[in-house]
C-alpha cells in the first residue's frame, strides 16, 4: 500500500479515484451548503436564475419568522426529549437483553432471539395502523409517551449488544461468580464498564433512528405544540399558499444543528460503534 | 440472589413508572377533549359545569383585515375566535388545532378509528361527507335551532343533507373559474384576445389563440393545470366540463361518466398543449405552491382558481414574492361549441362528532353557531373570497367586480357536480390525476388513460 | 421436568431479557400480529367485517399494486449494490490518506445521515426544481439539460434512487474504513513480495477479508431501503403516474388517504413476505460465513 511501491499506472488510478471521491463528497455536502446559505436568502433570491452561490443580501428574517412566529424551540425540545428518553430506555433494555443473549444459555434462547431479529428486518410501517390504535386506546395520542414507548425496545440494539457481549471473556464473569458476586452485581460492575463503547454507539444509533422516525411522529401527533421538529418543519415548508424556500431552509438548518452538535460531540463513538455490529460472532 | 432479583424488579418498575408518568403528565397537560372528567369537576356551585371542546380546523385565514398584527399565521384567527367565545362563556375551554390540507384526510380517519376525534371539525364538504357515511357525526337538524337554519340558503342545506340528515353546518363556499394574469396580455398588446368582465364567456378556440399569443418557449408557459396530487382537482375537471364531459351522469354515483367522446377530446387537447410547450415543464409534478410562484412571476397566465387567489397575491406582494405587477382577471372557463359548462362550488362546513353528553353537545353546537354568526360570515368573505351561506350576510363583496362575475357565472351557467357527496369521493378522486399524468407523459394514449380511470373508479364505486 | 429445572436454573437470564421483551411484545409483536389479522378484514373506521382473501384479491387486480411492487424491488436492487460499491470505493481511496483527510471524508459522507431525511428532501427538492433549481442551472452552464428530474416516472425513480444513495452511504463508508484498518499489513507485504499488484491485492486480500463487513452492510442497507418513506413522501408523493410508488408508500396512502386499513394491512403482509424472502436468502449466505 505504500506509495513508493506503486506502479505509475496505479498512482494515476489512485489520483483519479481521489478526484472522484472529492466529487462525491461535494455532492454530499452541496445540499447542506445550499440549505445553510438558502436560509439566509431573501425570497426573491431563492427562485432566481442564475442562482446566487453566496447570498447577495443576507437576511435573518427567515430565522426570526421561524423562531418568533412559531413554537420552534418547543418543537426542538419535543424532538430532543423524545429521542433522549427513548435512547435511555433502549440502552437499559438492550444491554440487559444483549447480555443474556450473548453470555447465557437458557431454554428458548434461540426462539426468543430470532423472533426479535426477524421483526428487526420488517419495516416499521407494517405495524403503523395497529400500533396507532393501541396507542390511542392507551390515551397516548399527542403525548410524549406515544412518541417514546414504541421505541423502548430496539431489536437492532439488542442484536448489536449481543454481538458485543459475546466478545467479553467468560473467564472474567466466572471469576466474579466464584467471588460470590450476584448476577446484577456482575452486570453492573463488570459487564457495563466493558460494554461502555458499545453502549455509547448503540445510544447514538438509537438517537438518530428515533429522531428520524418521521412517519410515526406524523401520525401520532396532531397538536401543534406537541409536534416534533422534522414534522413541524415539513409542515411549515409545505405550507398553504406558497412555498417559502428561505423559511424551509431555516427550518431544515434548525433541525440539522442539534444533530450536528450531537454528532461532533460523540464522533468517536460513532466510528467505534459502527464496528460493533460487524464483529465476527 | 433473591435480593438482587427484588432490586432488579424494583429497577424495572421504576423505569416503567417514570416512562408512564411522563406519558400521563403530558396527557393531563394537554387535556384530551374526550375525557369526561373535566365536565364533572365544576367547582363553585353557581358556575356552570366546565366544558372542554376540541376544534380542528383547516388552514384558511390569515392576515385578517384590521388585525394583521394578531393573525400572521393560519390558525391565529380561529384561536382568536375561540378566545372571544371563551371570554363570553368562561366555563368553556376550547382547544384549537390547525391541520394542514394534506394531513387532514389522514389524521381525522385515524383519530375516528382510535376514538380520539375532535368535537368539531371544519373541513371541506368532500371530506365531512365521508365521515357522515361512516355514521360518526351528529345529525345537526336536531340540535341547531330553527331560526338559525332558516337563515341559510336552502341550496347549501340541501347539499349538506345526506340520507335525510344535516351532517354538518355549512360555513362558506368557494367557486373557481378561469383566472388570468391580465398583465401578460397587456404587456404584449394582446388584451383584445381575452374576454372581459362584462362578457366573461369564450370558446376553447379563443382560449387557444389567447394562450398561444403570449407563449415563449422555455420561459412563459401560459396555461397551468394542477395534477400533481388529488387536491384542487376542480381545475382539471373544469377542462373536462368545458368540453361537455361530466364526472357523473345526473347524480348517479354508481359509475363514472367521464370516459366519453367529450372527455377524450378534453384529454387530447391537454396532451396537445403539453406537447406544444404551453404547460409548465414537469407539470405532472408541479404543485400549487410552484404554480402560484409561476403566476406571481409572470410565467403562467391562465389557471383555474378561486377568489382566494387575490388574497394570496396580496400576501405574496407584501412579502416581496412577486415579479412585475400581476393583475388578476376572473372569467368563465372556456367551453367548446354548443357547451355551456357551469362552475363548481366547494363548501366548507362544521361537522360535529357524535357526543354522548347532552350538556356538552349543547355547548358545542352553541360554539358552532357562534362561528357562523353573520359578522363572521362577512369576515370569511372579505378575507378569503368565500361566498357566504347565510342570507343575513347579504353580498359582502358587492363592490368586488370579480365576486360579481362569479355570482353571474353561478346564476347564468349553474353548478357542476364534483361528486363531493358521493360515498367514495375520497378514494375516487385519488384515481384521476395519475391517469392524466400518464397521458401527459406519453405512457398512455388519452383514450387508454380515460378507460383505465373509468375501470379503476368503477371498481371502487362497486365496492 | 428436566426443562422446568433448566428454566429455573437460568431464571436470571429471563430476568435480563424481560424489559426488552415486554416492550417488544406490547409495541411491536402484538401490533404486527394484529396487522396480519386486519388483512383478512374490511376495517371500517368503526367496525370490522371478515372478508377472507378479498383484500389480497383486490391487490392482485390493482395495477398500481404491481407497479408499487416492481418499484420496491427496483429500488432495493438498484440502491443496495450501488451504495455498497460506492462506499467500498470511497473507503479504499480514503483509507491510505492521512488522519486529517480521513476524518474529513468520513464526516462528509456521514453528514447526510446526521441531517434528517426531511431536511435533505426539502433541499433536494429545491436543487432539482426544473425552473429555479441549482442542478439544471449547472447543467445549463455545461451546455446540457434541462432535465425533468422528477417529471417522468423513470427519471423520478432514478432521482429517488440517487438521493437515497447519498443519504445512506455514510455508514458503510465508516464501516469499510474501519474494517480496512483491521486487515494485517503483513498480508499485503507478503503479497507484494510475490509481485501482486494493487488490483490483485484488492481482489485476493481486501475483498475476502471484508466479507463479514460486506454481509453486515448488505443486510442493514436492505432493511433500510425497504423502509424508504420520507424521500418519496416529500419529493414525489409516489408520482408521477405512480412512477415512484412503493409498497410502503402505497400502504400509507391506502391506510390514511382511503381509510382502507384492511387493504393497507394486506400490503403490509406482502411486504413482510417480500422482506422475509430476501432476509432468508441473505441470512443463509451469512450463516455459512459467520456464527450468530
From TrEMBL, chain A:
Main location: membrane
One Pfam entry name: BPD_transp_1
UniProt record similarity statement: Belongs to the binding-protein-dependent transport system permease family.
Membrane found in the keyword field: yes
Membrane topology: Multi-pass membrane protein
Domain ABC transmembrane type-1: 76-266
UniProt-listed PROSITE patterns: ABC_TM1
Biological process according to GO: transmembrane transport
Organism: Paenibacillus sabuli
Protein name per UniProt: Carbohydrate ABC transporter permease
One GO cellular component term: plasma membrane
Transmembrane segments: 12-34, 75-99, 111-135, 141-161, 186-211, 245-266
InterPro entries per the UniProt record, alphabetical: MetI-like, MetI-like_sf
Keywords annotated in UniProt: Cell membrane, Membrane, Transmembrane, Transmembrane helix, Transport
Annotated compartments: Cell membrane
Automatic annotation (TrEMBL), chain B:
Gly residues bias spans: 30-41
Keyword annotations: Signal, Transport
Signal peptide (from-to): 1-23
Entry's Gene Ontology BP terms: maltodextrin transmembrane transport; maltose transport
Name of this chain's protein: Extracellular solute-binding protein
Family to which the UniProt record says this protein belongs: Belongs to the bacterial solute-binding protein 1 family.
Lineage: Bacteria, Bacillati, Bacillota, Bacilli, Bacillales
Cellular component, GO annotation: ATP-binding cassette (ABC) transporter complex, substrate-binding subunit-containing
SUPFAM superfamilies (alphabetical): Periplasmic binding protein-like II
One Pfam family recorded for the sequence: SBP_bac_8
Keyword Signal: yes
Coiled-coil annotated residue ranges, if any: none
Species of origin: Paenibacillus sabuli
Source taxon at top rank: Bacteria
Keyword Protein biosynthesis: no
MF term (GO), any: maltose binding
Residue numbers spanned by region Disordered: 27-48
TrEMBL record, chain C:
UniProt-listed InterPro entries: ABC_transporter_permease, MetI-like, MetI-like_sf
Keyword Metal-binding: no
Protein name: Sugar ABC transporter permease
Organism superkingdom: Bacteria
GO cellular component, one term: plasma membrane
Keywords: Cell membrane, Membrane, Transmembrane, Transmembrane helix, Transport
BP terms from Gene Ontology: transmembrane transport
Transmembrane segments: 12-33, 73-95, 107-128, 134-151, 163-183, 215-237, 258-283
Domain ABC transmembrane type-1: 69-282
One family name in Pfam for this protein: BPD_transp_1
Record family assignment: Belongs to the binding-protein-dependent transport system permease family.
Subcellular localization: Cell membrane
Membrane topology term: Multi-pass membrane protein
Organism: Paenibacillus sabuli
